[in-house]
Specification:
By secondary structure, the chain is α+β, with helices and mostly antiparallel strands. The chain folds into two domains: 96 residues; 129 residues, Immunoglobulin-like (Sandwich). 36% of the residues lie in helices and 23% in strands. It contains four helices and nine strands; from the N terminus they run H-E-H-E-E-E-E-E-E-E-E-H-H. The strands form two sheets. Strands 4-7-2-1-9 form a five-stranded mixed β-sheet, with no helix packed on it. A hairpin with a 2-residue loop joins strand 5 and strand 6. The chain is elongated and about 75 Å long.
Length: 243
């Protein structure tokens, strides 16, 4: 077989493989489970024993004079495809703090913004009363404990095996909760396209047809990799960011 034809067939095979992989990945994203609840520990910060008397955060939470306390923000969301009405809950959702007494707890955010839940503190647990948890709904709970806890979330909901922990949410941007800021948009939509076009132009100036074809394939692969990852990162970030 002619070497040029063999190279062309190999390159076309790579292109088909990349496109097939992208299509499979997109299909997996669309076919998420019908019923799934997950939680994510967004951030945890610890106050040292010497809390300044005029500290604004400490004043808001009533922590002056208390020692060795921690604030943890927990988000839980319905990442499935169907709504979960309160009639399908067998009791409240529990946020457990591994034996560390909960000093206070409050709902600090939600998506949609008008969503409000009932909650109460019970020793080392925060109990959230059953409520209508629609697909993509999210609730953020801010809790204060005596020491940094190991937090876990538990609930008995029809056909939901367990409340799984989301270990990491990749922030696509540098804004709050990974939002895309102006600088990020310039990088993604001006800097990267300019770089890819430059690579393509340099590749097309090569002497042989095989080298030019390989340059096109590399630019195509880089484009799929960069913007496929960006779409994935934005999608998962929006799921865990209050709107």
């Amino acid at each position: 077989m002619d070497p040029s034809l063999a190279l062309l067939l190999a390159v076309l095979g790579v292109v088909v493989a990349i496109v097939a992989a992208a299509g499979t990945w997109a299909g997996v994203l669309r076919r998420r489970p019908r019923r799934r609840v997950q939680y994510y520990i967004d951030r945890s910060m610890r106050f040292l024993p010497d809390i300044p008397a005029g500290d604004i955060v400490a004043a808001r939470l009533g922590l002056q004079g208390k020692q060795d306390v921690a604030i943890t923000v927990v988000r839980f969301a319905n990442t499935g495809r169907v709504s979960l009405p309160p009639s399908e809950w067998d009791g409240p959702l529990e946020i457990r703090c591994s034996g560390q007494r909960v000093l206070s707890a409050r709902q600090s955010n939600a998506s949609p913004s008008g969503l409000e839940v009932g909650l109460r503190v019970d020793g080392d647990r925060v109990l959230v009363d059953p409520f209508l948890l629609n697909s993509r709904d999210l609730v953020e709970i801010e809790l204060t404990t005596e020491k940094s806890p190991e937090v876990s979330v538990h609930a008995r909901i029809k056909d939901v095996r367990r409340v799984a922990r989301k270990r990491y949410v990749y922030p696509p941007g540098t804004g709050i909760d990974g939002a895309l800021m102006t600088g990020d948009k310039i990088v993604y939509f001006v800097g990267f396209p300019a770089m890819l076009i430059l690579f393509l132009v340099l590749g097309l100036t090569q002497g042989t047809a095989e080298a030019q074809l390989l340059s096109v394939i590399w630019v195509l692969a880089l484009t799929i990799a960069i913007y496929g990852f960006l779409i994935w990162a934005i999608t998962q970030s929006r799921t865990w960011r209050p709107r």
